[in-house]
Specification:
Number of domains: 1
Bound molecules: zinc ion
Shape: globular
Largest sheet: 8 strands, parallel
Order of helices and strands: EHHHHHEHEHEHEHEHEHHEHHH
Strand order of the largest sheet: 1-2-3-4-5-6-7-8
Number of strands: 8
Number of helices: 15
CATH class: Alpha Beta
Length: 311
């Protein structure tokens, strides 16, 4: 039984998957297009997301409460099929497209009900997605809503999960005091690093805030200074082989960053990233991880140690 620690709950794509599964073919087609092969990881991710947004926007009756219930049931089924005993789910706080939901507070209630109904042996914690690529005022509203408790879902989150690009470092600096405040209040902090940009940016972030866990981190293994920081603070790297391979961050079929990290004495887990976007499962990611059965046992122990419980 596994702990899944890096799993995005991208509701638009999940809605398409239950409501009109045929449309997922449009997203998959992007990944096999020649234009996709010509650009780097960050641009590839953007191409996939543009397609999801475009496809979702052309489905007028997609975001109903009834669909969200089906999405929640499908999510639980996915966890059961992948033998997941615990998942830390990254979910947006506003879920604006779902007009009949009051954001994450309703979404989490529906997901919790789906878990209870299924009688699956599954525990779920939620981390609030902080997408720093969005405008500053938008991110600021979300993060202060959590820190001040004005977001009704604030008490339901174990932590936050930050993603950013090099152009967003000024926003990161600006909101750093709030992130530090969250941590002081017991919130866990995840940051996506060592994936879409070089290590200068990751070093900049790590000098200001050492997260509890890092999403991906595969490129960080080339940096001795960073490795020392990760070791000192026991920062877990939540790696995602299929995502890295599709986005051309690293081809896991030819080398295993997870194995390298284990050799360096760093805690590692294997995850799905955004399973709907990459059309993947935990099983497929474990198969691509290049780890032996003994190393995978270590990954299971690491997942149990580093997963988040209630605050
Ligand atoms: Zn991710």
């Amino acid at each position: 039984m596994y702990s899944l620690l890096h799993c995005h709950f991208e509701s638009a794509l999940r809605a398409l998957a239950v409501h009109k599964p045929g449309t997922l073919g449009e997203v998959r087609a992007v990944a096999s297009s020649s234009a996709f092969g010509l650009v780097g990881p960050a641009e590839r991710l953007l191409m996939l997301w543009r397609t999801v947004k475009h496809t979702a926007a052309s489905e007028p009756d997609l975001f109903t409460v009834e669909t969200f219930h089906r999405v929640a049931d499908a999510f639980v089924e996915e966890m059961v099929a992948d033998q997941v005993e615990h998942v830390d789910v990254r979910i947006g706080t506003s879920l604006r497209r779902w007009r009949d939901l009051r954001g994450a507070v309703d979404a989490i209630a529906i997901l919790r009900k789906a878990v209870a109904r299924s009688e699956a042996e599954l525990s779920v914690s939620f981390v609030a997605g902080l997408d720093f690529t969005k405008p500053l005022d938008e991110v600021e509203r979300v993060v202060t809503g959590l820190a001040e408790g004005s977001d009704p879902a604030a008490e339901l989150f174990a932590g936050v999960d930050v993603n950013l690009l090099p152009a967003d470092l000024a926003k990161f600096d600006r909101l750093l005091p709030v992130l530090r405040q969250l941590r002081a209040d017991g919130w866990k902090i995840n940051v996506h690093l060592g994936e879409l940009f070089d290590n200068d940016v990751s070093r900049y972030v790590l000098k200001r805030l050492v997260p509890d866990r890092i999403g991906h981190g595969v490129l960080l293994l080339d940096d001795l200074e960073v490795i020392a920081v990760l070791r000192e603070h026991d920062v877990c790297l939540d790696m995602c082989p299929v995502s890295n391979t599709v986005l051309n961050v690293i081809d896991w079929a030819s080398s295993s960053p997870a194995k390298r990290a284990l050799d360096l004495g760093l805690p590692v887990t294997i995850n799905t990233d955004d399973p709907a976007l990459f059309g993947t499962t935990l099983r497929a990611n474990l198969a691509l991880s290049g780890l032996t059965a003994a190393e995978l046992e270590l990954v299971v122990d690491t997942g149990r140690k580093h997963r988040y419980g209630p605050r």
